[in-house]
Amino acid sequence: IYCAEQIVIPPNLADILKAFTKEVIRQNPDNVIDFSSRYFARLAQSDQPEGLHSANLIALRGKLALADLQQTGEVSYDVLSALCDEVGMGQDDVERMLKLGDWQGAIDWNEFLVLSCTLIAENQTQLIRKLFEVYDSDGTQSMDPMKFAHLFGFLSKADTDIPADLPERLAEHCRSLGSN
């Protein structure tokens, strides 16, 4: 490679490296080389749909937030589809997520991301972790309690095992935390 024009960086490389770096920091392995080998082997052999990984969803959340100029929480199908393509998600993955939601016209992009997390999480505990990973804005794996309650409301719409009143009770509890 003799000049910058010869360097072609895959569009999702930064997102993959960011997710990997966070996992290394979170796990703090004694042997980083061995951990790295296992991490990327699991990623390569993952039964998740190609292009549907936490790294893609993290990148997508950032792009959707920027694309939502009016801060309505909604984007058009065309915008969503183009951004998903930019982060390396396949159109089949996008269509699968759209079938999970019940959108007429504009798409609530937070609900889209929550439903996307349900497809890559193996259980409810992992799903909650994925939400915190995707919505982590400062590397602390934390989230505003009201934001979490709002996102959890989308889960209750998709999962009939969650009691219908639980999201409102969770939101009420979060509001009470804010007043203390």
Tag the structure with descriptive keywords.
180 residues, mainly alpha, two-stranded antiparallel ribbon, globular
Q: What would your notes on this structure say?
A:
Helices cover 63% and strands 2% of the residues. The protein has 9 helices and 2 strands, in the order H-H-H-E-H-H-E-H-H-H-H. The protein is globular.
Summarize the structure in short.
It contains nine helices and two strands, in the order αααβααβαααα. It has helices at 13-27, 32-45, 54-67, 77-86, 91-100, 109-120, 124-134, 145-158, 166-178; strands spanning 74-75, 107-108.
What is the topological layout?
Blueprint: H1 13-27, H2 32-45, H3 54-67, E1 74-75, H4 77-86, H5 91-100, E2 107-108, H6 109-120, H7 124-134, H8 145-158, H9 166-178
Antiparallel strand pairs: 1-2
Helix pairs in contact: 1-3, 3-4, 3-6, 6-7, 6-8, 8-9
Strand content: under 5%
Helix and strand run:
HHHEHHEHHHH
Chain-averaged pLDDT: 82
Overall, the morphology is globular
- How do the strands line up in the largest sheet? 1-2
- Count of helical regions: 9
Biggest beta sheet attributes: 2 strands, antiparallel
Total strand count, please? 2
Task: Find the structural class using helix and strand composition.
Answer: mainly alpha
**What oligomeric state do the depicted chains represent?**
single chain
Uncertain spans, ≥5 residues at pLDDT below 50?
none
Q: Please compute the radius of gyration using only Cα atoms.
A: 18 Å
Fraction of residues in helix: 55-70%
